[in-house]
Write a structure and sequence with these properties.
Length: 735
Amino acid sequence: MLISPPFIPAAVANESDQDYINRAMIGGEPGNGAFPISHDMGWHGGIHLTAPQAGNEYLPVRAIADGTIAYVRQPSARNIEPTDPQNYRNGWTDNGCLVLKHETDIGDGVQASVVFYSIYMHLSSVTLANAQQGLRVYRKDKVGTAGSIYGEEHKMHFEIICSQEQISRLTGRSNAKLSTTSVGRADSCWGDMYFYIPQEVVFHAERPANATSSANSSPIVYRPAEAYFIRMNYSRGQCKLSTFNEDGILQGERAEEQDYEYNLYKHAADLYPRCTSAGYELLRFGRVLGTDTLQPVDAAHWREVTYPGGSGWVNLNGPTVTIYSDADFPHWQGWILVDDDTNSDGRCQSRMVMDLLGIASVPVTPEERENCRSILDQAEMCKRIRRLICKFPTEWKKGNFSERFNWLTSGDAPIVSAEVYKRLKAHYEALAFWEDADLDGIDAEHWHLPPKEFVALFRRCGWLSLNEMKQLIPTVHPNTPPTAISNASVTLALTDAASGNRNAYRPSGLHLSLNKMMRKYNFSTAERMSALFSQMLTETDLMKTTREYGNANYYTRAYEGRCNVTIQRVVVEWGAGISNLSPLGNCSPGDGERFIGRGVIQMTGRELYVKYGNYRGMDFVTGTNYLNVSDVADNACDSAGYYWVKEDLRDRNAAGQWVLRRVKNIHRDADALSSTELSTAAGEAAADAKILTLTRQINRAAFHIIWRRAFFKHSYYVLSELVTLPPSSYHRRQL
């Protein structure tokens, strides 16, 4: 899923994503369009947002994700007639409305294919051309202008909803809280990882000498009196471990050594030499999601984590420890599913919500209502309910007004008069749209997801649907002359097997295997993913082949005899001059033809095939096993991730010699790319230089650097929040 906020301000250097979301989604305060309840404990399915400004202009409303129009209503003309139901309370309220249906993937398989709707209400204009039901809309498209709510300008109501069937696909469950006795979902696993540490697990002074052993003879430094949750966060090369109690209250946190993520391959190789690939996943996810097997199968995962007053070593792969990710919507992080309100009168009568707020019952008297408001104004109470996922009837249905709001005039002390009630009903009906929309597959009583938190969380997902991945492949190849690239060819490239001339071969299922590889090796940002696709699209000729093009004569000239010293040879395909050819471990006759470039970034040479086999606990050199690097989709993709994170980085010095930087992981170069550089014409030269440096870690000669830069910029425009200065070669792939 690729998702953005409904307003997209320009990037700010070194800004966290949460800070960005806070700038983009302004509003939702108690009493001013908060989610999920209003001051009087009335259910409220969305939040009221104020459009941010860029200079003197207010930002337009944009589609949060790819989708189709499910319903559209142009706004009524604004007027000052006091009898118009849209002139209510303090002024005019716009009724322009757009509902988008989003169908995407958050992981592998049917249960990770999801459908949800986004609602944009109180628009003063719908700006999409030919806006009608069924029109395809793309993430970041301008869809409208924030209008007026009760006389306050540049505001809109924003809402995200889904059906009963879809809630279990989106969150992985239908119960209020996660079970702590079974591991989280494997079909969808992304974001931060979490470990449930039951009370019987003790903290030790040191990690055992045999790091894979669960036995630890070092002193016990802490015996917990309660269970804990450990959160493991990887970001921009670093790793941080945070400890929470069962109420989700932070108990402490510690950072792993500097550059722990960048050095994750080295840590895995040191700790799990018998199958480093599985060990890498254990360190990355807390469990093995792929097909490789831990050696030993119950290998420990020791980490130093905090407890109140100190820190100690805990085996996070212990038999009673259970593992989750953000994809499981952990309840200790505030994600609770609320469906215990069976009353349809529009007020929150959920016992779960009232217990969280410390409210005994629905407020009725003026004193109770005032007390309720004071509770909801408290920052701590807002935090407790900000991530609730709640099931209740829509507020946009005309036919149920009386059922929802009769409580306003009932009892000995009615809240509003009959005349005010009449005006409210007319206002409500002027805004309602549910019966007209007749949305497919979703009832009037449905799940409401916290809009701001939903967007923030799923921005961490990283799993690309087929249609999202197809958009990363340009519609025109930047060669001379430019060549059109059809939708059909892109679909085939990402899904089907193919073979052709020049030894071309491609396995089926690259779309799925690429997603698994990007998840494993944490291609989790627009910069990292764009860096990968810039190299991969070049090396595979836009995903046409996972074998290097050529014939026996070329492979012999280029690779035969490159054993353990640099040799000089003319490779006519590379130019007329003599090339200095670095050693590849090709010491046996025929190695040049066997160990050609294979996989999605063309891993080359016997030495790398041997090392990759050792990493996976497999054999890629005996007989025809070398074919498995290119001809099995998972290997073709995983070999690229392996090379990416284990590579020793190097630069050219002034004399043109290669100098090792003595650090690993190409993510370092991707992370050095600045969103502000990539979003401005002035920063383009700096970005181009960094893309060249990154390219040379994969292809020392930087062949086709123009293509690689073009592919990077195209991918980055698709993946990022960039809405201005698209690359000159960018043409949206219309699906």
